[in-house]
Amino acid sequence: ERMKTKKKTKWELFRKQGALQVFVWMGMIYLIIFNLIPMFGIIMGFKDYSITSGVKGIFTSPWVGIKWFREFVTDYKFGTLVRNTVMLSVLKLIFTFPLPILFALMINEIHNYPFKKILQTCSYLPHFISWVIISSISYQFLSQSGIINTLLQALHLTSKPIGFLTEASKFWGLAVFLDVWKEMGWWTIIFLAAITGISQDYYEAAEIDGASRLQKIWYITLPCIKSTIVVVLIMTMGNLFGGGLSGSNFEQCYLLGNSVNAATSDIIQTYVFDVGLSQGRYAYATAVGLIQSVISLILIFASNFVSKKLTNQGLF
Description:
16 helices
């Protein structure tokens, strides 16, 4: 009888949470279809699979072991691809991770509520603009005949157009700048939410003790949002090769990259796209993508381990 009552109670609770359960299960179904099931395709990286073979499928294709991994490591592009991927990702980590925190602290110190809301809204609106649109705008503004170069020459600040999109040395700076402009406001929302949850009693006590604004930020605000910062940092490290907070390395390099700036715009993701879809080498592309995924997984565990040792905060 107690078991029946317990089951009845659980069923009633499930019915009360009907709408919430629908949302949860829809999310679970999405993850199963688009994240879990495709994991079986990893085996393709160890097979001699070809979509043009007709008869042989992924599981029936001959096993080749680490042939494709060895081919990628010995490819003449390997050094350039790894260097570009790592450098672009590290630069984005250095600039795009701390700036949303600083921006959130700045917005939190603004006491003019209407101006504060307008500033916050304007800062996160670029997040909703696709990289396709941003790349088109970039060409309009930064091409040799674009608005920026025309203005610089009209003001006699330069004698000839600057190759923002055609000089390899300028690509990393351009990518980081656009990434900060697009995503800084969006990630600021998370840190602002964490700051909002801090009890005002701490600030009132600090004000009574004569603490300045900077002291309240340093000794109250930052320590109170430390757990949020750590979680976001671990997520950023896990997606470091994808672009950090925004995960936009591929979109930027594919849309803004060209044969002229290829020395700095070619990364592992664009290489995978090229050999996988353009050349039809799906097995080889799977192996290369798997290498990047394994490295990302290692970075997640490593950053979580270091974070737990230093701050006693982590994801798991």
